[in-house]
User: What shape does this take?
Amino acid sequence: MAKAKDEKLAKESASGFNLQAFLQGTKEELGKVVWPSRQQLISESLAVILMVSLSATIIYLVDALFGWAARQVF
Assistant: This one.
């Protein structure tokens, strides 16, 4: 078993890149992924949109406050 693995690694290192091994590994890893349910996807997407909107609004208000303060001083 170890000999076959060593031969495989030697073959891959000689050619540089093994597309078939890459695609097989990718397929195996995607099989391990736990995909969210539709409800979970929607609720988490809405939470992200809400937090980004809230953050953008706060940044805008702070910027407007500092702009107003700068106009008062200068």
